[in-house]
């Protein structure tokens, strides 16, 4: 297959998560360019060394490696079909859409946001209102143990759907909709060819809130209970009860926002079910915020907690636990970022 | 004045706080024995070296120094008038009254509890129902910088009153009451002679809750915001708001328990007033729980948070912030005590 027939992917954020998706998409037949930061030199020279339980071991050599998005677009003599954003979303530090600042992103390029949190799309929608935006949640256990060295477990799932800005209900342009659906399905074919568990969702916001139940609770509580992993938290009855109560707050906000239950079974059963699944895992989980805390990196509290709290305030829903956790996380982060300076 | 005419004080907990009270009581004419733990050898050999802004520098040599209460009582050929308990209250680790286990405490000895938290008296009342119990709150800025070396600032205030067990309302025995009042006043004369700011309160529980407004909020929040001191916390608008909201929860429980306002001005003004006073201080304050956190020592969360939460539950008062903070403190402590092992 020549380059011209290949689906062209530009991957922004070539870390533990991005590299696995890039690898699978390339294996599935796509042309994959990667933008790297800290691991640029290593990846440019020899690609990624990946050790994966699911896929076996491999060496992922991206078709092209760049330092920035503007370099990538300037040096590629074709239009990218998809830009995959696999970075953390830190709007409290800088506008996430600034990642694409200075890049002449074609209006025909689809922007795929593989990020945690709620309302992460608005930053891109404001700058690229004409581009198709795909909102995605990933379930994947992967870490970069050394520059360009990736250790991956068994799971790679991507759930995604079209981003529909708020207030756009009913204003469906049938032609645009059909084109967008075709782009969703084209991405799915690429992912499936790369053997990624892939699911297109009509209501991706429901899925985002579903994932937030976990992220908005175990993530910060893990930091605030002295850096406790999933087992240390959930085997402590006081912390477990706190997690359950915090989850209930997130569920109540999410259900009010998406205007339907977050699951197809009773909502009051969600916390115990999630906790049960977590405790069944062989190894304790170290949530991403805890890793950020340990490495003194900024945490994604704006999109994981604050954006949810802002919805709660707008809708008049009381979320005292989430607000307490949010304030403590801000204080904790301010303290360790100051120390790290 | 011979030993026989002196008021005899046995001080349990010869640390930063206890040593200052012991010193002042001796200066005021009392016979003062001190029970020391970690600093026993130093204090036994040469007493305390004290550097005080208020009192100047001095060497406090206790009249007697012991390793335990039973040793003190066995080796003293007189009955102590007062036993001052100046240790932390950690009923989740062991019964605080165990400090006096094996000591033949005379029924005529008054037990004075200089400790933080709520419901700290019940542990002693259960074991010593016939002794007069004095409940006290101390305001003092003092630390032990090295074994037996004490640095003290400007303030030493002791507020105290008779402990009246719950459900004892109305059952006043006039003879016992007069005797107890006389013992309160005798202690006051000793403290005033030693130039300590001393105040007998009819309703000491109101004062305890008043102090708890501060202790139940800034203390744990300081730990949970990454070890932030008073300025770091209160100059952060998110943390400050959390502190205010948490204080309101403590105030609402305290007022329901003591059945009256905690201050003589509107309760809604208390948080800003306390915070204002704190921010006016020249130096940032490092709350005691934060010091325990830094030195990986157990924290007084049982009497400072849990006992207050138990009152809230009994009275049907919602305290989601205090409950969140309590669970996180338990998780944090479990984690660092495990690491310290």
TrEMBL record, chains A, B:
- The chain positions of domain Ketopantoate reductase C-terminal read 203-330
Record EC number: 1.1.1.169
A molecular function (GO) held by this record is: 2-dehydropantoate 2-reductase activity
Q: Which GO terms describe its cellular component?
A: cytoplasm
Q: Which residues form the signal peptide?
A: none
Question: What is catalyzed by this enzyme?
Answer: (R)-pantoate + NADP(+) = 2-dehydropantoate + NADPH + H(+)
Q: Does the keyword Oxidoreductase apply?
A: yes
Q: What GO terms in the biological process aspect are recorded for it? A: pantothenate biosynthetic process
Start and end of every Ketopantoate reductase N-terminal domain?
A: 9-163
* Protein's UniProt keywords contain NADP: yes
Q: Which family does it belong to?
A: Belongs to the ketopantoate reductase family.
| Function noted in UniProt | Catalyzes the NADPH-dependent reduction of ketopantoate into pantoic acid.
Q: What is this protein called?
A: 2-dehydropantoate 2-reductase
